[in-house]
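Q: Got a minute? One more chain.
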Amino acid sequence: MRIISGKYGRRLIKPPKNIPVRPTTDLAKESLFNILTNKLSFEDKSVLDLFSGTGAISYEFISRGCIPVTSVELNFKCVSFIKSTSQNLQMKNHKVIRSEVFRFLKSSNKKYDIIFADPPYDLDNINEISTIVFKRDLLNENGFLIIEHPQEIDFSNEKHFLEHRKYGKVNFSLFYYLPDL
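A: Always. Here it is, folded:
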């Protein structure tokens, strides 16, 4: 696994084998960031990375100039790995929170420019992520929500849905937030 671009570009990240994750492939990650690069400037954007796993998406956002970046993950080993990697790379403005994601979302009052969620594909309530984000008003105006999900999930009828992209077995649904007029 590697950081693709930015300040920490080409750095290899080697997570331990004993953490229960399904990292986003480098191809899918690179494609997603190419899409986002054409839609926004990363500088000084606040990011929330949900179900952070190895932290790969957080590192990519930090490498490209996003600050602050908050990683939320429940698994203790993953949280330890993310903290250790962030410290080793001297990443500033990276906050790592050990929490169940839905509990975190329901109690958070902070707004973000970008929210990325990569839940386990067998999670029963993946659809609730977008519902909670928009109901709790967690995105800034012109903010993006990106959800990685299995092919069977279809967000196209959801409010604020922008587009769906598929890269092999990886599916991304992008949402764009403009407040109702």
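A: The helical segments are 26-37, 56-63, 76-88, 101-107, 128-135.
Q: Perfect, thanks.
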